Amino acid sequence: MIKNKQDLQLFLAEDKKALGAKGKRPRLHDYIWRYERALRYYEYYCNCAKGAPDKLFRWVAKQRLMRLGMKCGFSIPVNVAGKGLNIAHIGTIIINRHARIGDYCRMHVGVNIGTEAGFDDRAPQIGNFVYIGPGAKLFGGITIADDIAIGANAVVNKSFTEAGKSIGGIPAKVISDKGSRNLVYHPPEK
After folding, report:
1. Model confidence, pTM
2. What is the CATH number of the domain that holds 163?
3. Which of 37, 61, 85, 175 has the fewest beta carbons closer than 10 A?
4. Are strands 131-132 and 149-150 parallel, antiparallel or unpaired?
């Protein structure tokens, strides 16, 4: 969660690295990078707004996020995704506001992360370094451990708490021990 200006700069820098983006700022056609920046600025203004000028900036940030979200097909609420978010392609991605996604997650088009039917707050809790393949659906109050790769079109409706696994199928089950190591950005060791 972005709590101050330093957090904002950290999230922006890590998102840029995870996307493999070049340059200081996104170009006009860099819709995904522009969307992620708009998301982070809106998170900052939602969490840190103190006075009337900040409320105006928050409103502008919200409008920018909504416009880019409609253009890209993304519906990602604030304070859901950790730093290093990597959206691979433009296309539909829908995430419930109660879901939590850890750091350095990579997701593809057609991903839906939602609640258990009939419950607004039972949404997935996803660990760090998780790869979510195209068309994957995650539902309910489940937990996904760190370093898990979720295959294309998988339907995940139960928890996977053992790190470093690859899961897939309908319903999802463990299909290998490869995990997400080569599929998501990992920051250099310090």
Report:
1. 0.92
2. 2.160.10.10
3. 175
4. parallel
